[in-house]
From TrEMBL:
NCBIfam families assigned: pgm_bpd_ind
Keywords for the protein's UniProt record, in alphabetical order: Glycolysis, Isomerase, Manganese, Metal-binding
InterPro entries, per the entry: Alkaline_phosphatase_core_sf, BPG-indep_PGM_N, Metalloenzyme, PGAM_B_sf, Pgm_bpd_ind
Protein name (record): phosphoglycerate mutase (2,3-diphosphoglycerate-independent)
Stretches assigned to the BPG-independent PGAM N-terminal domain: 102-322
Gene field: LOC115752513
EC number of the protein: 5.4.2.12
Species assigned in the record: Rhodamnia argentea
Catalysis: reaction(s): (2R)-2-phosphoglycerate = (2R)-3-phosphoglycerate
Length: 511
């Protein structure tokens, strides 16, 4: 908490009079991009949000919502809903991703958290498995973080450790994998001298084994599952250094496309399959290329490929990779501890707040907005309304989602003048955009725009103030592109659909 000179008291605004209702509308997954047929926001009929752009530059502008602008490690990191709402609610940038891991490792807090305690329950009789990218590129993971985690786990009771490595060559120079493996092997050898059974157990190249994203190719995950979990792969070696050197010697080989391999003992048996009673940590801090593996490791009803075995394990991610799916359910490093959020300031100044969205984004205008805190700051001054999302129905089947219902709740909250601030999240651009259904996303964007109009009309009726913004991009670009920006096509000539968030800026308009 702040020092002795700190005060919750907010000074009066130099221009805006008191007593005017403020509406904050977050358009989820609503970025700004060049107009074309794959920009669903452009194609959709969106007169309300179109009119906001006419306020540029004084009342409408572009804002970065990815990378270092929101506390992520690099500008190659897409923004996401959790980080975006953290920043919106706090009004400040907090460390996310790699920075959080660095702080947790340096302070030792990583070993005090519930996630580490959860995997530690397996240390007495089970094996600790660490799966991730072996690289110092700093985009998805870092070698020094892995080294510290292995050392710390051993000091906290891990007796048997197996590392499942994915070689890089994409964020670092091709061929650097050999040096990374040698460095890791050196660390593991020192642990073995201290009585810890520590070895590399399996591996493969990141683009061919384990690290696919956006459900593009589940065969990539299956190859990793077979090697890491089942201990089965077409290539078997006695050491990881031998594996990488020999596989790299093959024609046209590269680090990122090395085939899966397993390390075997003198009897030809895999040294580190994942079995019942083991603990597993995926040590990448970046989410996008860990989500698919996390689903395979965690979901009972997983159906993307035949897992053959589904071991009963204690699994944790380095971080939680998807706040909406709460995946994984256990993680070593918690979201940032955010103090003095806007919501907290408002209640300390007697400002009455209303927040609303449907289930899939309700936590974003409450929990994440309030600095990763559950519940109210002051229930006498706050009201949170959750509208149930459709269950068992894909978002592209009902792309309008609950936009109208959210808008109606916001409208009523504005017109009854019970609240000073009304904030909502309209999820359509993001949730329908993730389905990859362009026509449905266009319908969803139109529905969100209609909701914006309902809210802004209510603001006008009471002489209020509005801010319309977003948390990250998605619906503004629904196709994969080459480096020159042209749409990519597959071998059959079909457009390759993009279902992920983007690196595009967002727009923000105000009255």
């Amino acid at each position: 908490m702040a020092g002795s000179g700190f005060s919750w008291k907010l000074p009066d605004h130099p221009k805006l009079p008191k007593g005017r209702t403020v509406a904050v509308v977050v358009l989820d997954g609503w970025g700004e991009a060049e107009p074309d047929q794959y920009n669903c926001i452009h194609v959709a009929d969106t007169p309300a949000t179109d009119s906001l752009r006419k306020g540029a530059p004084d009342k409408w502008r572009l804002i970065k919502a990815h990378g270092t602008a929101v506390g992520l490690p690099s500008d190659d990191d897409m923004g996401n809903s959790e980080v975006g709402h953290n920043a919106l609610g706090a009004g400040r940038i907090y460390a996310q991703g790699a920075k959080l891991v660095d702080l947790a490792l340096a302070s030792g807090k990583i070993y005090e958290g519930e996630g580490f305690k959860y995997i530690k329950e397996c240390f007495e009789i089970g094996t600790l498995h660490l799966v991730g990218l072996l690289s110092d590129g700093g985009v998805h993971s870092r070698l020094d973080q892995l080294q510290l985690l292995i050392k710390g786990a051993a000091e906290h009771g891990a007796k048997r450790i197996r590392v499942h490595i994915l070689t890089d060559g994409r964020d670092v120079l091709d061929g650097s994998s050999v040096g990374f493996v040698e460095a890791l092997e050196n660390d593991l050898a020192k642990l073995r001298e201290k009585g810890v059974d520590a070895q590399i157990a399996s591996g493969g190249g990141r683009m061919y084994v384990t690290m696919d994203r956006y459900e593009n190719d589940w065969n990539v995950i299956k190859r990793g599952w077979d090697a890491h979990v089942l201990g089965e792969a077409p290539h078997k070696f006695r050491t990881a250094v031998e594996a990488v050197k020999k596989l790299r010697a093959e024609p046209n080989a590269s680090d990122q496309y090395l085939p899966p391999f397993v390390i075997v003992d003198e009897n030809g048996e895999a040294v580190g399959p994942i079995v019942d009673g083991d603990a597993v940590v995926t040590f990448n801090f970046r989410a996008d290329r860990m989500v698919m593996l996390a689903k395979a490791l965690e979901y009972d009803n997983f159906d993307k490929f035949d897992r053959v075995r589904f071991p009963k394990i204690h699994y944790a991610g380095m971080l939680q990779y998807d706040g909406e799916l709460k995946l994984p359910s256990h993680y070593l490093v918690s979201p940032p501890e955010i103090e003095r959020t806007s919501g907290e300031y408002l209640v300390h100044n007697g400002i009455r707040t209303f927040a609303c969205s449907e289930t899939v984004k309700f936590g974003h205008v409450t929990f994440f907005w309030n600095g990763n805190r559950s519940g109210y700051f002051n229930p006498e001054l706050e009201e949170y309304v959750e509208i149930p999302s459709d269950i068992g129905i894909p978002f592209n089947v009902r792309p309008k989602m609950k936009a109208a219902e959210i808008a109606e709740k916001a409208r009523d909250a504005i017109l009854n003048r019970k609240f000073d601030q009304v904030r909502v999240n309209l999820p359509n651009g993001d949730m329908v955009g993730h389905t990859g259904d362009i026509q449905a996303t266009i319908v969803g964007c139109k529905a969100a725009d209609e909701a914006v109009k309902i809210i802004l009309d209510a603001v006008d009726q009471v002489g209020g103030i509005y801010v319309v913004t977003a948390d990250h991009g998605n619906a503004e670009d629904m196709v994969k592109r080459n480096k020159s920006g042209q749409p990519l096509v597959d071998k059959n000539g079909n457009i390759q659909i993009l279902t992920s968030h983007t690196l595009r800026p967002i727009g923000s308009g105000q009255s």
